[in-house]
Design goal:
The protein has 163 residues and is α+β, with helices and mostly antiparallel strands. It has eight helices and four strands.
């Protein structure tokens, strides 16, 4: 036979009410966030030099990422649209995308309309994702080494990394 146990109200911990506005809205403002936002991992910025990306190549990748809304659906902005955003000609955008493709960050996939007309390319960013995943353990280890704390003579000191 099951016992009935009373729950004391004093043992119940009330959870804080979730704020209706997100932290990003608090930081940037609701009106700004209402126009959209893109989530990119910070590792792309921290590893920019290790990835061999110059500033314009990184900007092109970030613009492509802004159009990548779903994992299964590759972004497909036109070169003209990217050029307007980056203040580059469509031809310059095409050259930078070619460089990114040759470096293995992006794969261009041709897209055609039902009447056989050519549309803007799809851009597969799985190469970039794979490169970031490969670098992640190294950056994580470096981050953990920075945080590692040891005791010496009762004092807490941060361990230094020799590089």
């Amino acid at each position: 036979m099951a016992e009935n146990k009373k729950v004391s109200v004093s043992n119940v911990v009330s959870l804080p009410q979730k704020s209706s506005s997100r932290s990003s809205e608090k930081k940037w403002g609701k009106a700004v966030c209402d126009l959209g936002f893109s989530i990119v991992p910070s590792l792309i910025f921290r590893a920019q030099a290790r990835l061999g990306l110059n500033a314009t190549q990184l900007a092109v990748l970030l613009q492509l990422a802004d159009y990548w809304w779903d994992q299964e659906r590759h972004p497909y902005p036109s070169k003209a649209t990217l050029g307007e955003r980056l203040q580059l000609s469509p031809r310059q955008v095409q050259r930078y995308i070619k460089e990114l493709e040759e470096a293995g960050f992006v794969q261009r996939i041709s897209r055609f309309a039902s009447h056989k007309g050519r549309l803007s390319n799809h851009y597969d960013l799985s190469g970039l994702v794979a490169r970031l995943k490969k670098l992640e353990p190294e950056f994580r280890e470096a981050e953990e080494n920075k945080k590692q704390v040891t005791k010496r003579g009762g004092m807490r000191v941060q361990k230094q990394i020799d590089q």
